[in-house]
TrEMBL record:
Residue ranges flagged as DNA-binding region: 124-223
Residue intervals of the Response regulatory domain: 1-115
Entry-linked PANTHER family: PHOSPHATE REGULON TRANSCRIPTIONAL REGULATORY PROTEIN PHOB, REGULATOR OF RPOS
Gene3D superfamilies in alphabetical order: 3.40.50.2300, 6.10.250.690, Winged helix-like DNA-binding domain superfamily/Winged helix DNA-binding domain
Protein name: Phosphate regulon transcriptional regulatory protein PhoB
Residues annotated with 4-aspartylphosphate modification: D50
Role according to the record: This protein is a positive regulator for the phosphate regulon. Transcription of this operon is positively regulated by PhoB and PhoR when phosphate is limited.
Stretches assigned to the OmpR/PhoB-type domain: 124-223
Keywords (A to Z) from UniProt: DNA-binding, Phosphoprotein, Two-component regulatory system
Source organism (scientific name): Paracidobacterium acidisoli
The keyword Cell inner membrane is assigned to this record: no
Any GO BP annotation: regulation of DNA-templated transcription
InterPro entries attached to this UniProt entry: CheY-like_superfamily (IPR011006), OmpR/PhoB-type_DNA-bd (IPR001867), Sig_transdc_resp-reg_C-effctor (IPR016032), Sig_transdc_resp-reg_receiver (IPR001789), WalR-like (IPR039420), WH-like_DNA-bd_sf (IPR036388)
A GO cellular component entry from the record: protein-DNA complex
Length: 225
């Protein structure tokens, strides 16, 4: 849910239509009191906050919202363009600042970027599955207590799969995130790397329990079997 806190009815309507068209649920408030009512019982996914509000200061509202929902992005929308105000708002917890007049497309892009940031999987530092233990900080792996030598790309591939468990990962996605290819070569790079990981980490590489093939789609990591 996107919470729009804006006292200008025209801008409220524009933002309401903008986010609805992108599939978001939208709630609107024209001041701090209405904003508090809007978030009772449900946390917003993101907040669009105008600074110049009747009653409650936008700065105070920004601070209280971040205290109540520290992981919810707050994007400030204001006609104030002073650098000092921007710095102050960032210190109060605002995640971004868009100056009026604004481009709806730009604002939408910033909203989507903020949501992607908070939904990004946390980096895996260490992980265990089956008889395998992996320490990504030390770049060390063991299987049944014995050291396993993995290459840098094997570590990167394994880490990306562990950060996205139970999700089918296409070869194109793996190439892009692990190898950084912008255009996908017609090679069996991923297949060969997966085969090597299975040989090193699976107890039965020909019948893998954890690094599974999803025929016609890609691969999937399964922790428990």
């Amino acid at each position: 849910m996107v919470l729009v806190i804006e006292d200008d009815p025209g801008i409220q309507k524009v933002l309401h239509r903008l986010f609805l068209a992108e599939g978001f649920q939208v709630k609107s408030a024209q001041d701090g009191k209405e904003a508090q009512e809007a978030i009772k019982g449900t946390a917003p996914e993101i907040v669009i906050l105008d600074l110049m509000l009747p009653g409650t200061s936008g700065r105070d509202l920004c601070k209280s919202l971040k205290q109540a929902f520290p992981n919810v992005p707050v994007i400030v929308l204001s006609a104030i363009s002073d650098v000092t105000d921007k710095v102050l708002l960032l210190e109060l917890g605002a995640d971004d600042y868009v100056t009026k007049p604004f481009s709806p497309r730009e604002l939408l892009a910033r909203v989507q970027a903020a949501i992607r940031r908070i939904n990004k999987p946390q980096p895996v530092k260490s992980y265990s599955f089956g008889t395998v233990n992996v320490d990504f900080l030390k770049m060390e792996a063991t299987r049944s207590g014995e050291p396993v030598a993995l290459t840098a790309h094997e570590f990167k591939l394994l880490r990306f799969m562990l950060e996205n468990p139970e999700r089918v990962l296409s070869r194109e996605e793996l190439l892009n995130h692990v190898w950084g290819y912008n255009c996908y070569p017609s090679t069996r790079t991923v297949d060969n790397q997966i085969l090597k990981l299975r040989q090193k980490l699976e107890s039965d590489p020909s019948n893998p329990r954890h690094i599974r093939t999803m025929h016609g789609m890609g691969y999937k990591f399964v922790a428990q079997t």
